[in-house]
Amino acid sequence: MKCVIIANGDLEYSDDMAGIIRQARLIVCADGGARHLKALNILPHAIIGDFDSASPEDQLFFKEKKIKTISYPSRKNETDSELCISWALLNKATDITLLGVTGTRLDHTLANIYLLKKLAELHIPARIINKNNTIHIVTDYIELKGQPGDFLSILPITEKAAGITLKGLEYPLVDATMEMGSCLGISNVFKEMIATVSVREGLLMVIQSQD
What does pTM read for this prediction? Predict the structure, then answer.
C-alpha cells in the first residue's frame, strides 16, 4: 500500500506534488505538516506528533473534519517523522514517500534522509521528494526514469560500497568501488530515459536532481 508522509519542511504547492499525495492510499501528517495539506485542500488519514509546530487554527480545522490525531509528549526519543513511519508500517504501508522533510534545519533534513536507510534495510521502497530532488537509499538495485540531461549523483553512506554498476548515464561504471567521502559519483547525467544503479556491498544514496 502506497503511503505519503508530509512533514513541516519545504513543500511546493504544485499539481505534481498534489498528485503524488492523492495517489497514496494512506496519507499521514507529521505535526505542522498539516498546514501543507490544508493549503492543498487534501485531508490526511492521521496527524501524528507532539504538536509543537501545528497552529491552533490548523488543529481545530482538522479536528472539525474528524481526522485521527495521535499525540506524543515533546520529550521523546523519536522525531515526528519517525513516529509517522512507524505508524504507517503498522498500518500495512509497503511503499513510502516523504514530503516536506527538507528545509532550513539541516539536522532534521539529514535525520530524515537516514530514515530512508532504516526503510531500505526493511526492504520498504521509499524516497524523499522536494521541488528539485528525489532521494533514494539503494541496498542492491534501482531503476529510475528521467530526461536526458537530468542529474544523478551517487554517494556511499557506508565506509565502502563495492560492485557499483551504473547504466543509462553519461559516465557508466562497472563493478566499481567507492569509499565514503568520495565525490566520484557527483553530477552524473541521464543519457537515456532509464538509468539503473546496482551495488553488491554497502549502501548508496542516490539523488536525482534538476536545477
Answer: 0.93
